Amino acid sequence: MKAPWNFARFLPLAGRLLSRGRLPTLLFAVASKGASQGSRLGKVKEDLRLLQALCLAYWRGEYRGISPKALLSVVAGLMYFLSPVDAIPDFIPVFGMLDDIAVLAWLMKTLDDELNAFRAWRKRQMPEKLAVVERLPDTPEQLLLEGPQKN
Question: What pLDDT tens digit does each residue of the chain (151 aa) get?
Fold first, then answer.
């Protein structure tokens, strides 16, 4: 399946973000926008939480079952979600979030096998461990101090 229009420009940005260790800042921004958009996201809100959990588990070194290309796509998708100026700017009432939702839905479909592997990994974990691995601390700086961990 072909990537959505304008998505490819976020891939090199995602690579730079990962190489500079800025994933915690992105995750906090995604959590903030996800919370503020609430009902406008519908089912995609759960998908967004799954992508966030994947990134947190990766950052903390607990989950490494994702390919580098898939991780790059996830981060690019989250960056697209955050960008106010994408295919349909977010400030346009009603329609502004449609392209963001479409990109996240495309990402979920494209990375279905990788995300199913992550879901299976999550099911094998103790709830107490998942609570720690997927917890977003109070600030990005605190998360920076926790990682990145290499396994």
Answer: 677 778 889 999 999 999 999 999 999 999 988 887 766 677 788 999 999 999 999 999 999 999 999 999 999 999 998 887 655 655 565 666 777 888 889 999 999 999 999 999 999 999 999 999 999 998 888 888 887 655 4
In one-letter notation, the amino acid at residue 30 is V
Q: What is the pTM of this model?
A: 0.88
Cα dist. 99→34, 87, 96, 139 in Å?
15, 6, 7, 29
Residues 6+ apart with CB under 8 A from 98: 88
* Cβ neighbour number for residue 23 with a 10 Å cutoff: 23
Going by the DSSP 8-state scheme, the letter that residue 139 receives in this structure is S
Distance CA 3, CA 105 (A): 11
Rg of the chain (C-alpha set) = 15
